[in-house]
Amino acid sequence: xxxxxxxxxxxxxxxxxxxxxxxxxxxxxxxxxxxxxxxxxxxxxxxxxxxxxxxxxxxxxxxxxxxxxxxxxxxxxxxxxxxxxxxxxxxxxxxxxxxxxxxxxxxxxxxxxxxxxxxxxxxxxxxxxxxxxxxxxxxxxxxxxxxxxxxxxxxxxxxxxxxxxxxxxxxxxxxxxxxxxxxxxxxxxxxxxxxxxxxxxxxxxxxxx
Length: 209
Description:
There is one protein chain. By secondary structure, this protein is α+β, with helices and mostly antiparallel strands. The protein folds into two domains: 9-138, no CATH class; 144-208. It is 56% helix and 13% strand. It has helices at 9-41, 47-65, 70-83, 93-111, 118-138, 162-173, and strands at residues 144-151, 179-186, 191-199, 207-208. Helix 1 (9-41) runs antiparallel to helix 4 (93-111) and helix 3 (70-83) runs antiparallel to helix 4 (93-111). Mean pLDDT is 77; it is low at 202-207. Keywords: Membrane, Transmembrane, Transmembrane helix. Pfam families: DUF4956 (PF16316). This is DUF4956 domain-containing protein.
């Protein structure tokens, strides 16, 4: 049967490693994307992209590494993804960072099959996940987001009514304003364009009238 399928005995070991490493990489990706990124950022629109890229990069690196492409090819992947621009909306810096991490984890899990045991590989993945969790939760290094608002109550722009302005903006937008910047004031229309800055809670940069 093995001869009919053109599978050599040593290839069985390679297929076993592929299956185990693939499951291991998929589990690491799930922890990073679902349990860490999505729960904190409250965003799910990148699920497909993260998982698809993780699977594609892992299989690409794993299979091509077996024909001795090795590290040069892996580094080339980072260069390719570094210059790619999606034709849709621009990806925020934090999402691009997680994309880079997903690629890095997939490359590590694929290329280390001849160098790291599963215990060492588990430690490396846990170290990476722990560092991300520390940056997100302990150090509170959250990405600051912004929102452009067209505001009509220009009487609240007076310096003596800053508290009323912030309270009104927070009630209307539903975000906790950390700071704001008045871009311009149109006295003919009694409106002002104000940029609000707040902690990233999954809301993208947009304009509110």
